[in-house]
Amino acid sequence: MSSSRLGLRLAVCLLNISEARRKYIVENVAKAALLEKNGQKHPEVSVLSIFSDQEYNRSVITIAASVAELGNSILAACLEAFQSIDMEVQEGIHPCLGAVDLIPIYPLSGIGVEECGAVARIRTSLVAQRLRICLPTKGTWVRALVRGDPTCHGATKPVRHNF
Asked: Residue 93 burial (CB < 10 Å; 0-12/13-18/19+)?
């Protein structure tokens, strides 16, 4: 039986972080996506894969979850990445915009692209509020922009500091 017939509303996020060489940081970001606030593994969230490119010093963490839980998982992973990745010392051949610079969200089952976009916008707002940074959205993905962007009201962190 397909997941859509079971009523499951599933989406996936390909979280792009600017770290690959320090495996423990990548694993901690992935682990943050999996855990509930009480520290227990969330039953509706899975990390499907982690791809790390050493030369680029970039990893893509694939997180799948129910739509109701994906946003919380993304938020937890982003907060861990922002706290763990120091962009002042980050090196790699990939031109990164920050500790987390791309958060694409794709529908898997029982959900449309529009709702994925809504999840991205809501989580972006929460991350930006918590860290006092600017993370504008476009469609179902999020990309960090420079501080001088006129849409970045209230951003207090300079471009190379963990965003």
From this structure: exposed
